[in-house]
Amino acid sequence: MAAAAGRAGLGHAAGWKMLGQRVEGIVTTAWARCLFTRSRIPDSVFQPRPGDHEKYGGDPEQPHKIHVVTRIKSVVGRPYWEKKIIHDLGLDKAHRPRLHKNIPSVNARLKIVKHLIRIQPLKLPYGLPTEEEMSDTFLTSRGELVIKRYLRPVEQKEMKS
């Protein structure tokens, strides 16, 4: 059987089966797994670049405290570790913003999936909301925390005649 496979010029890349006059290869994908392991990604991908601050805006001396992270690309066909990071960050649904602290442990994970997400600083155009206003806030797609103030009835003063 091996001689028939050798004569046919098929090589030894896969296991071969003789079925009548036909030779069929049994496809093995074990060789493909090593191509997509974390060790194959160069370390330069995860190092900060000097032009990042100018490109994305922001001041390195006064960084923002909270990131607004939104997944903008699908994880279908991505490696298992990128899917796990996306799940751990709560970005399972696309175009749903999530808030994360601007700390090194979170930033290291965001760098690994930076091609799948959009990161913006949290902007507070109306200042920090109070405890009563927290239920009336919402997050826009531009990363602004907007306070939706409802009008309250004004108490009428008694008029003396």
If you had to describe this structure to a student in words, what would you say it looks like?
The protein is an alpha+beta fold. Helix content is 20%, strand content 19%. The protein has 5 helices and 7 strands, in the order H-E-E-H-H-E-H-E-H-E-E-E. The strands form 3 sheets. A 3-stranded antiparallel beta sheet has the order 4-3-5, with no helix packed on it. Strands 1-2 form a two-stranded antiparallel ribbon. Strands 6-7 form a two-stranded antiparallel sheet. The protein is elongated. It starts with a helix and ends in a 14-residue tail after the last strand.
How many β-strand runs? 7
Class of secondary structure makeup: alpha+beta
What does the main sheet amount to?
3 strands, antiparallel
Helix content: 10-25%
The largest sheet has its strands arranged as: 4-3-5
Report low-confidence residues grouped into runs of 5 or more: none
Number of helices: 5
Report the sheet-strand fraction: 15-25%
Q: Sketch the topology as an H/E string, one letter per element.
A: HEEHHEHEHEEE
- The dominant shape is elongated
Quaternary organisation? single chain
- Computed over alpha carbons, the radius of gyration is 28 Å
